[in-house]
Design goal:
It is a single chain. The chain is mainly alpha-helical and 189 residues long. It is 78% helix and 0% strand. The protein is globular.
Length: 189
Amino acid sequence: MPFNLPIALTWLRIIMIPLVLGLFYLPESWMSVPTRDAVACFAFIAAALTDWFDGWLARRWKQTSAFGAFLDPVADKLMVSAALLVLVDIGRVDTFIAFIIIGREITISALREWMAQIGASASVAVSWLGKFKTAAQMIAIPCLLYWESYRGIPVGLLGKGLIIVAAILTVWSMCYYLQRAWPEIRRKS
């Protein structure tokens, strides 16, 4: 297993998950809810930025690896799933929305693995639709974590709207990937 700064940043993102989750289980006497929410929001943003930065560094320094290509999306999916579960627990995201997003991630990950095994991974490569879905999620989740209004902007309401957009893009992108894979699925089944 190679170890370099891009992979270290990916591991840092994974390590941050229980730290962000833990904030929501601290006694209120330790930290006020608005402070907790702000810290969780900024920690999630920092973790999301490491996602961009580790990929950029790996490409720039020519330190890409099969292990890094495996670990990076796993870290992303863990981070998003953990945040969604906390948001469901505190009543800021509907269970159905979280199920759609997490279920899609599991489905498409399994589809990509199977397509790679049969030598057809190019048909389910990341698309612009998947990138829009990810962007909507990565903006919605910090808004939902922060929740409070900021300078008159209803951040929580903005997050609620964006997570619905993310769920719609999630279903759309899953259908897109399944449609792209369908000829191989029919041929191999």
